[in-house]
Amino acid sequence: MKMKHVLIVALTATLFWSCKQGKNAPAEQATEAVDMVMVDQFADLRILRYEVPGFDGLTLKEKQLVYYLAQAGLAGRDIMWDQNYRHNLVIRRALESIYTKFEGDRTTKSWKDFETYLKRVWFSNGIHHHYSNDKIMPEFDREYFMGLLEATEITLEGEALEVIFNDKDLKKVNKKKGVDNVLASSVNFYGPDLTTAEVEAFYLKRNNKPTDQPIELGLNSTLVKENGKLRELVWKSGGKYGKAIDEIIKWLEKAKAVAENEQQAKTLGLLIEYYKTGSLDTWDAYAVAWVNSTEGNIDWINGFIEVYNDPMGIKGSYENIIQIKDFEMSKKMDVISANAQWFEDNAPLMDAHKKENVVGITYKTINVAAEAGDASPSTPIGVNLPNNNWIRQEHGSKSVSLGNIIDAYNNAGSGGRLNEFAHDSLEIELSKKYGELASKLHTALHEVIGHASGKINEGVGQPKETLKNYASTMEEGRADLVGLYYLMDPKLQELGLVEDWEKVGMTAYDRYIRNGLMVQLIRIALGDDIEEDHMVNRQWVSAWAFEKGMADNVIEKIERDGKTYFEIHDYARLRELFGELLKETQRIKSEGDFEAAQALVEGYGVKVDQGLHAEVLERNKKFKAAPYSGFVNPVLTPETNDQGELTDVRIVQPKSFEEQMLDYSERFGFLVK
Q: What is the value of pTM for the model shown?
């Protein structure tokens, strides 16, 4: 269960990802306007800036805390690169060295292709696409690259050189049915020759002690085979990634010294102890303390957290997000948290699968001050943590909406994809008037109610054990369905969250179906299956509802002037269908029904109508805006006195994407030899 919950739900656009909710603005609303928010655009990517409202109003101590936490996050940046692929760091060093040293002609197409390749690698924290997981293939040839190496006297050889151009390690993460998911994935969580069966057997053997408070087994280690035996290389001080982790610890110690309160200091102390020991029991103790650390203006996410990049759903990717509370917006969203039990009690779930007592949910709108690892440059817009199910059930969770990131997407402008793919003028009008609110509410309901809802039957294992490679997409779809079900409920108006619940709900349904069945296809190449967990979940939710509603013409597929549209005729019945699917999805999770999960995902979420896909790609050609977005981070610049004491922290926006990437490699390249 990924509770960063970044659902690609985008607030500007509406896709829904956290679990990392929402990495990237929705495809439909990627902007075509270029304004002060835009830093760069290349390939299928655009780079934006974000502001940090409220930073100047912080006290010096609070600014120090933000600065130290941000430095701790960046200190672990190389970990994410190495986790993504075993040769990423050496390839990055070679590419950056060429970029800074080459004195030849920088106006040729081949050089421009090299620059684009380097930027794409920077964006994805490695040589595999951040979203599709496909290896990024350069448009320059091997001969040209060898000439660059020679001209700059840079050495890159062996597998690290050859993999740039060959057909090896084509997928970072491969969760397809019918393949050995571990062996077919090049992500660096497992030794290159390990199989799915070996990994399953290893962790099954270690997980033979029944407990109602299980640790996240294997979360912070690389599993390798040495002398014929499997063993874990734990990510900790003195262990794997130790040089970077020691730097993280150094900055966390400084942060602890300026903590806002005792609970915050205790929580940071446990995080430090976890990094020192690698103990997953300590990680759980930290998570409990973090959930209960709700006072103060500053908060953070730091650690090995989301498991989407692991085909087995075990290993956590490194990430860091530093947060400043947005008090005004948070007040508006507190009402959802306060009514969590009502939503649970009235959900269309089997009574046996409902929580009798929903505890500890907090939902805040925050402003991001810094990001690193799995959260940067491609960032979530909503996050829900912790991921360990028993902690969530007994102690609750924290959900946040990344307000300034959402604002940056919105300020980048709205594009014409809405006009192209919406069925009629009413659909367009509703989306323009209610779309942003509908998206914000879907994000909140997804994160706060969705991920916190339901319970697993006694004796049934965690989803990563029972649902395996389908666990993540099932969880994201389940949370999406919770949000969708309640977006058409008059309770939202009763709570003062909307002025017209029906129109907000109609807007949300229009956008979800339009994206899930059609618009999101602009993100994959013709002929490809859908593989990314959030895209998969949006399609299986939408396609299932479309099929089950055919008899009543709930959603009609319309052909007009050679173009396809989807029109919802019966919103009330569609809500009932979403409720039926939610009930079944929760049953699958509660009972650990792998076969049912597989049938749902493979039957509705993976395969693409190739005719429709070709049409969508053709219709999208007229739009210049890139379908994926990411961000440069504001530079937190310390000011010191003659004694070296930090007296202030200023925010300076970086001049360019490449400037920031090179600066990060220079200052935080702790794992590069």
A: 0.81
